[in-house]
Each structure stands twice: as C-alpha cells, then as structure tokens.
User: Fold these one by one.
Assistant:
Number 1:
Amino acid sequence: MKLFDVYPLFDINIVRGKGCHVWDAKGEEYLDLYGGHAVISIGHAHPHYVEAIAKQVATLGFYSNSVINKLQQDVADRLGAISGYDDYQLFLINSGAEANENALKLASFHTGRTRVVSFAKAFHGRTSLAVEVTDNPKIIAPINDNGHVTYLPLNDTEAMKAELAKGDVCAVIIEGIQGVGGIQVPTDEFMQALRRACDDYGTVLILDEIQSGYGRSGKFFAHQYAGIRPDMITVAKGIGNGFPMGGVLISTKFKPVYGQLGTTFGGNHLACAAAIAVLDVMKEEGLVENAAKVGAYLLEELKGFPAIKEVRGRGLMIGLEFAEPIKELRSRLLFEQKVFTGVSGTNVIRLLPPLCLSMSEADDFLSRLHKVIG
C-alpha cells in the first residue's frame, strides 16, 4: 500500500531529538526552530516527559471515558493554576481541529444561532466546521462550504462591530496570534473591543490558542496581553509535546449535559500523563518566562537584519516577512546551515522553536541566518 501523497517532503529522515536539536538517519544534527509546527513545547525527549509516559504505558495506556480517570482532573487542576483559568471547565479531545469543532458546537447549542465570524488569513483546522471557518478556499470541500461564515479583516473594529450588531452571530473565533496566516497579531485594543461587542450582542467569543497558547507568546495565552477572558479557549499542539491531545477551556456560562459532547480517545491515560509532564516541566523550568525573554531578544536582533522586510510576533512565535519569496532561503537554512524553520505563504518564515530555546541557541540561529542573508 502506498501512502496518500498529500505532503511535499524534504529528503530528510529525522530519527532522534534532544532539547532544541534533532538528528537525521545519517547522523546530521539540526537546530530545530520549528518544533514540528509549534508542537514541541518543552523540548525533544525531555527526561521527565519520557519517564512519565513510559511509566504510564507500562501501567495503563487506555481505558474508556465511561469510568473515572483521575489523571484528567489532575490535568485540569494544573492547567487551571498555571493559566489563570481555574474557574473554567475542561473538555479533553485529540487535536486542535477537534477542539474548535467542539467549541463551535457548544456555542451553537448555547445561542441557537448558526452564523460565525472568522478573520482573513485564519486557520482553525481541517475538519467540518474547523475548515469552514478557515480562510482558505483551496482546502474547503463543497460538503464543508455551508455558508455559515463571514470573514472580516483582522483588527478592523468598525467592521467587526457592524457584523455583530446584526444580532445573529453565534460565535466569533479568532487566533491569539495567527500562525498559518503569517504571524499576524491582533491588537490589544481590537481584542478588547471584540470582547465588549460579543457581550453586547450575545455572541460567544472563542480564542483559538492552539498554536499561540501554552506559553509560546511569553504569556500562557496570547490573548492575556489584552487582559480579556474569552468564553472558550481551544488548545492542542504544545499540550502534549508531541503526543496527540487537544482541549477546550469552557466558561461556567456553559452547562454540561450528558451526551452533548463525546470522544473515544480524548483524555486517555497516556495522553494525560504526557500533559501532566509538560505542565510540570513548564512550571519547574520557567518556560513561559524563558519564551518571553529569549523571544524578546530574538525579535529585537532580527529587526537589525536589513534583508527582512518586517518582523512580527510575541515570545517564541515569530514571523519574518521578506520582499521576495523565501523558498530558496528556507532551503539554504535547512540544507546548508542545518536549521529547521517553518513557512507561511510565499514570503514569510515562521519560527516556533521549543520553549526551552536558550540565549546561546538563539545566537547560534542568528549567526546561521546571517551566513545566508547577510
């Protein structure tokens, strides 16, 4: 059987990782400034994480959600404490797209409405509702194109208010920082106005923190720079440091009903062990604070490169926009300088390293980048 060929692949077979470094099958070492799409939060093969998963899988890897799983409450307690959302509820699933699906479903149950506001360049996943609120017609199949969504320009307060004033919007879904869209940052003022407008018109505010959350921005959630509290927050990627897991943090205005939501694998014992280990390491090693410090340093230094048209982001979620397409530049970084980076569109390089990136590793990256672009 052949693999379904939907991924353009680099001819590199990564077989091992440690911290912010990975090695291929030939023994070549690479500096990882991408973390597998912002998934690696605490670093590759962290010993505490490895030990926690090994111990759990040797004890019990999985049982169904029809019985008590105290590990789920442990995740909820730790996540509530570190994020400042200990008064919210937690529903655990398997991925970011699934988190957004469930958040949108809850919003519709709550309001009885079906229309959603999303934003230009948004990316929220590839499943039914998640892909419909994603601003990319190329990946929205006809069966998903159901006319539920209005896309608005990001940071356009007047357009947002006018749309919500129609009184029929079920939910607004917005990324804390747009990732696939090119590291576009909502202004604090826009986020504050959005929160007020959602309150005024009975609209649910969903913050997609799947890529921008879990400490990546230098705060636990990127929206916390604006001092707002959304009705729901969706998380995934960094939650399990590579183990597939997602979640929805849910305000107490939503009352759970038996059978309303469900999942086979979500919140399983092994996933919870991974999530608990991640939160342990984040707290003990101060990784949110490290992301803020090292990220601020990188942002400032990168602004000194004349070849870069614009530097955007917060913490260790950074976009480098160039005047010309960056395909060759990214290739040279990878094959000549042995640095993994991401991309957004044709002109933006994305940096999403593990949150344990050190100052010396940041300087190492800057040195390698300098060799490519001067």
Note: Residues 58-284 form a domain with the Aspartate Aminotransferase; domain 2 fold (CATH 3.40.640.10).
Number 2:
Amino acid sequence: MGGTKIAGALVDARGELLVRAQRPTPAREDGATVMDAVAGVLETLAASDDWARVRAVGIGSAGPVDASRGTVSPVNVPGWRGYPLVAEVARRVAGRPVTLVGDGVAMTAAEHWQGAARGRANALCMVVSTGVGGGLVLGGRLHTGPTGNAGHIGHISVDLDGDTCPCGARGCVERIASGPNIARRALDAGWRPGPDGDRSAAAVAAAARGGDAVALASFERAAQALAAGIAATATLVEIEVAVIGGGVAGAGEILFAPLRARLRDYATLSFAAGVEVLPARLGADAGLVGAAAAAAQDIGLWQVPEAP
C-alpha cells in the first residue's frame, strides 16, 4: 500500500508470485474511496483458483503504521489517518489472519527470505528512495516491534545540529540521504541539470559518474549519513549485514563505494567493524514478497532460511 499504487499478489511457499493485481491509489480522495481500491485488488486475487489455498494475509504499508492497533496513516494519503486497515481487510478475507507491517519492514522480510540477507541471523535492510526506511532481522526472525516500525533507520539523527526533518527532529538520515535531498543539496551547491532538465537524484548520479565534483560530493554526504546510521545500528544490536535497496541504491558504486569507506570511520568497535554492505536483490517485488513473509512468520510458518 503506497501513495501511488496498491499492489497485491498471491505468494507461494517459495516466494513465487502466482497472481498479481494492482490499482492506482486514489490518494487525494476520501478514505472510503481508497479502501474501495484496496477491495478491488482483493477481489481480483480472490477470483483466482489459488485463493482457497491462502493461509494468511500480509500488508506492507507506507507509514506511519500502528500494528498494535491495526491502523495506518500514510503521509501521502490524507484520507487515511488512523485508518483501521487491518479490520477492513479482515472483513473481506473470510477470517484469515491479517498481519500489518511498515513497508521498510516488509522489504526486510523479503530480503531475508529470498534476497541478499538470506541465511543471515542478524541484518538491517534499508530502502533509500524518496524517503529512507528500514527493518531488522534479529536472531533469525523478523523484528517488527510493537507497532510494526522497528528498524526505521531514516529517522536516526546523525547530525545533531542539522536541518529540521519533516518528522520534527534534526539531522535525520533521511534528511541527508534520501533522493530528493541528494538532489536538493547538489542544486544548492551549484550543480545544474542537463538539457533534459532532470533534477532527480538519478540525474545527479549520472553527473557523478561523469566526474562532476558537486554531484560526487552530494552522494558522498549521503553515504556518510548512511554509514553513521548503519554503524549506530551495528553497535546497538550487532548486525552482520546491511542490505540497501530503493531508487538511490541504483546509483551503484557512486553510493556504495563511499558508503563502505565511511563505514570504516564509524563502525570501529570489533563487534561492529565486520558489517557487510550489500545491494538488495528483489527490486519492485520486495514489498509483496515481504508482506507474505511477515504474515507467514505470524502464523508460525516462518523458517529461518539456510544460506544459499
């Protein structure tokens, strides 16, 4: 569930997507209209012959979410504030259990089950895109926290006197490392788009590959913020690996090379220094696969994946 689209799938025990459904999110409409779109996705899935085999339903939603209450308040969907999404979905799925997690936690579940964190008992997985989200695997299990938001690394403060983040805090990882902030910082420092006028982080990455010093500096600053956040997490809960996905991760070594270098500056204690940084593997399907994995864990179907 996101501000642009509502996607659904039937996911089997191997993580394969058997049936898909998708509708645009009517993000500026009232809450009932948004729920009608969700219901339409569910109806498409329920029309499949495989629906009878469904054991549980998982929801990965843009946040904030509150799994303890079963509610969601996506920032980009103003008609949903404290909306009882779990109860509304449960009414439509014939008594099947429904699990709610944030979208970063869903991505984490997917990467642990089928992706770059497979076989790792302790991991941080991150989505670096328009925002910065994340989730944790601890002791071989998805660690959602009471409200389904544990591991939200984007709102760790890494610059105590930094800019105010939309969340209200100062110097958050997201305020420095998200795509829009990479582009904003480059523009403020004098970078200018090419003839196509593209002002996105992807355009900044392209300029960085071409050797543009301002573009490179903006990505290096983002990498520094991510490194500080990863090191803080490693120090707190002893992760083995940090997996990074999302649009900004598409910059490749323009992001990952300075990130690994700066991580050595921050993860200095022996138990944190060995954290491996890897790109995510599952791409756009991570939310769907991860929502299924979170639901499977909730009903006791989850098994710790073996290393490939």
Note: The domain at 116-280 is CATH 3.30.420.40 (Nucleotidyltransferase; domain 5).
Number 3:
Amino acid sequence: MSADLRRLAPLISLIGAPTDIGAGARGASMGPEALRVANLQSTLEAHGLEVVDRGNLAGPRNPWLPPTEGYRHLAEVVAWNTAVHEAVHAELGLGRLPILLGGDHCLAIGSISAVARHCREAGKKLRVLWLDAHADFNTNVLTPTGNVHGMPVACLCGRGPQALIEIGGQVPAINPKWVRQIGIRSVDAGERRLVHEVDLEVFDMRYIDEMGMRHTMELALATLDANTHLHVSFDVDFLDPPIAPGVGTTVNGGPTYREAQLCMEMIADTGRLASLDVMELNPAFDVRNATAVLAVDLVESLFGKSTLMRK
C-alpha cells in the first residue's frame, strides 16, 4: 500500500466484550477470543491497515437467573453496555474505527448509542445496517424469554427500561428510519406489530429471495453521502446455519456464503464504513472454530478483500 493510501486507511481498534449476559445460551463470552484465534488482527493488517487490540472490557459475571419484570440480568446488562458505550465513544473521538467483538447482541445498545452520540457531536448523519436473523425489537411485555439480546433495536429506538434507553444521553438514541435490517427470518408476533408500528425498514429473507442480495443492498445503502457514518451490526446468526453453526440462536434459511460476501463487498464499495459490531459468535456450538474463521473472512471483505476480476 502506498504512503498516500495508508494515510487514508482507517485506524482500527478491536474491543472485546466477553459476555453472554443478554443471551439465552452460555458461550458468546468466548467469542472475542475465538475471533482473535481466527487471526482477525493479522488478516486486517495484511491489507495495510493499522490495527490496535485494546483487549477485553470488564463487567459483571453472568448470574444465570430467571427474568424479573420481563428482563434477565438487567443491572448486569446496563453495566456491560455502559462500558461498551464509553469504550466505543472514546475510540471514535480519537478518529479510529472501533470493531466491537461480542459477546451477545444486547451489547449493540452500548455501541450504537455511542455511535449516535458521536454523530450528534460531529454533525454527521447515521445509517445502521442490522445484519441478523432476528429483528431484536422485543420489549419486556412482548418477550417470551426476557433475554435482552432480543431487545437492542427496541431499546435504541426508545422502547425499553430507562437505565438502557438513556445510555448515550438522548432518548431515543436513534431514529428507526436510520436502520436497515437485512436477512430477518425470525420475528415474534407481538414484535412484528411493533416493527410495523415504528415503520422499521426490513429486508427479510423472502425479499432477498425474490429480489436478490444486490438489489437489497442497493436499497439499504441508498442516499449515503460523505457526511454519513455507516455502522454495521453483524450478528453471526445472519448466516445460514450450515456454514455458520457457531451461534446459540440458529435459524434456517439465511444468506449463503456468496450472498454474504456480496453484502459485505457492496458495503466496502461505499467507503463509508465507520464502526462495526461482530456479535453472537458462540464457540460452544462451533466446529473447530469454523464460524469464527468465516466471520473473519467476511470482515476482511468489509475492508476491501474482493474476488472482483473485471477491469
């Protein structure tokens, strides 16, 4: 990479959040180390990127208790998300691109509220791509489990407990119109009604089947400009389970390897990616770390790896 290109490349910070505090199965706490074992840092550095690993955040252990008033482990979830919020906001303030290594997807409350706060301070617009099998728009009234990893988008949009929705200093942290959900194929009945009520833009798997990933991503990325901060929240259960077994909440019928690669490559083509979550990787369900290796492969595509041979 030339010196000029190296100056333009993002400075990347890896932040581990080793907890399964919001999940319904243990094991996502091992996700950050699995991504490191799969050579995430050296893979990105091979593209000429400067990558610093900030290590792991600390937070309360998982007490593994039943729900209280519709929430499992609310105090612990708040503590972890507060730590994530401060760490991600600090890296953005240094002009760096944070990659949050989860951990379960409840941690997106902390990361995306930090990104939204940064955008307010910098006068930027925000676009969130939510790559997931689930809409994650449950509330304590709607949830069948009380697991907060099914609630982060609702909390970010102001539908949740005060202690979570106020992280970041503004309620709601984001406008639902800033979000594009891709790959959705598991939504609870009450959750579906709420998603329609707030008019969340969802490209579910039927849409992708009918219209293709290329058209889906063209719409999801439409109207991005130089003043838009693009955040990608990548839940590994977005992928079809046969290629990505290492998650606790598999749902059949997700994107194939090539569809996922196209998704990531089209995001990379925008040049707007400014922050990233990699969530719900659970080595307890994986086979020889294959899902972590695949996740690193896809993250590499977000930062410029391409099979493109056309002139």
Note: The two ends are 20 Å apart (CA to CA).
Number 4:
Amino acid sequence: MSLVKGIHYLRKLNAANVPSALIEKGQSRVIDASLTLIRERAKLKGELLRALGGVKASASLLGVPLGHNSSFLQGPAFAPPRIREAIWCGSTNSSTEEGKELNDPRVLTDVGDVPIQEIRDCGVDDDRLMNIISESVKLVMEEHPLRPLVLGGDHSISFPVVRAVSEKLGGPVDILHLDAHPDIYDCFEGNKYSHASSFARIMEGGYARRLLQVGIRSITKEGREQGKRFGVEQYEMRTFSRDRQILENLKLGEGVKGVYISIDVDCLDPAFAPGVSHIEPGGLSFRDVLNILHNLQADVVAADVVEFNPQRDTVDGMTAMVAAKLVRELTAKISK
C-alpha cells in the first residue's frame, strides 16, 4: 500500500467518524512494535559482542527502506534487501580489502529494517516518521559497541540519522558526503524532507561542524549559495584532479564527537553504478572513492549508503554489488 492509499484509508476512517483517539492509539501500537523489534535485536547483538569481548566498535546494519521523498523515482525503497543479498553473495569472499572478516560478528551485525511502509500505511506523517527513524538509530547506539551503518533508501534518511547520532553523542560531528548533488536546497518542490534538502536540515540543526561534499557535478545557484550560507566545503568534479591530493589525505573529527560518512551511490560515474535514479555522467571512479575512504583518518561513528535504485540496476545486479562493496569497506572503517 502506498502513502496515497494510506492517506485514503485514513480519510475513510475520518469520514466514518472513527474517533481520532482510536486512530492515534492504533498508530502508536504499530510504532511501538516497530521500535521494540529494533530495540530487542540491537540488545541481542550488543550482548553477544560484549560477551565475546575485545570489541571497541562494530558496524551494525540498519535498513531504512524509504523512497517517497525522492523527487524523481522511488526505487531506493527496495534497496536494503538487495544490498544485503549482494553482501553475502557467493561470488566473492567475506574479507574486506584491509583484511577484516565480515562473517565475524565482532566486525558486522544486523538489526534489520525500520518498517517504513507499514508505519506509513497507518497514516503516520513525515514529522513522526523522521522521529521514528531517529529513535531507531539511537536504540542501536545504546547497545555498546554497535555503531549504525544505515542502508537507504533515498537521501532524506540522512537527516534523521545524523540528528540521532549527534544528539546521542552530545555534540556535532564532521560529515564526509560523497554525492553528485549537494542535497542542500532549503525546501525542494515544497518538501522540507526532500532527498534534495537533507543537508540543509542537518546544517540548520547544528548537527555538523564541518560538511565536506565530494563528487559534486550537478549543482545550481541555490546549491552554491546554500553551501556558502552554511560554510560547506564543496569539492566539484570539474576540479577533482586538482583536489585529489587533499581528498585522499583527509583528517577529520578532531574536536568533535566523531565523523559521519554519507555515500550516495550516484557519486560514482554511471559507468560504475548505473542503478541510480539520477544518472549524472562525469563522476568518481570506484577506486577514487575507496582511496578517499581507505586514507581517511577519522573515528567513524556512523555511516549510510543511499540512493541505490534496484529498479534501474539493469546490468545483472552490478550496482547492488557496488553498493555492497561500499558497505563492506565502510564496515572495515567503523569496526575496531
């Protein structure tokens, strides 16, 4: 059932004079059940790792299958299960390039998905939905040594995730954002939660001290003005050859609560990742991205991989494998 159907269902209940308190009670039950599932899975994984011992930080997958805030296609809602399938695909082994083993629970665990569609089917609006996503992330973070590695979904999910990370840690983070677009419109097409506005919400909320945007090659006048307004460090592809030395030797996070990495799969040139909603030629190579990640000096407290669209992944699941490899290498960066 789509959001439209969910809204129609809610209107029918209202038209039938169903008491609003009854609708609210039903919504609250669904939300509580959703959060309980995340909470208990995180508790189980946290208890396991604490029993094993010797783990300072472990990446924990959390899926947020949300696509309705996309300005073009909603396919990213279907991405989390496809990414998981590719992570454990038998065509490759479980080692990251730096030698960490993903089948070791001390390196990677999984707490499942926030049931976005089920919550929206109850008529829950986006304000509450964003709060539910934030609360889900906090539930993961409460279970030491778990650190959330979020599978999107469209890029609108980064706002509630970063908000949760910053609030839970008690201060702003530095953000490394790889993307073809700056996603910093004030309110794109009238939607304050648009995937094109997520970083405006993050910056105005004070959740980031530094925001570095890398791979940018589709930016408007407003995108540049917003970047200046918030003091964003925007690295456009047209100057990448000049900036490469800086970007492959980044040191972030000193004086703040840690570093957050957000990777929009369309930061890559479509030759490497055709399965995205917004095809934008002239992007980063996959090795460019890995060089940036591998050389980054930072305490990575959380990350996301977003905007993979399985409905456009026409080359035999190639982009799914690309997204999975990004997740694998982020796992190695987070876990210690």
Note: Residues 160 and 280 are 26 Å apart (CA to CA).
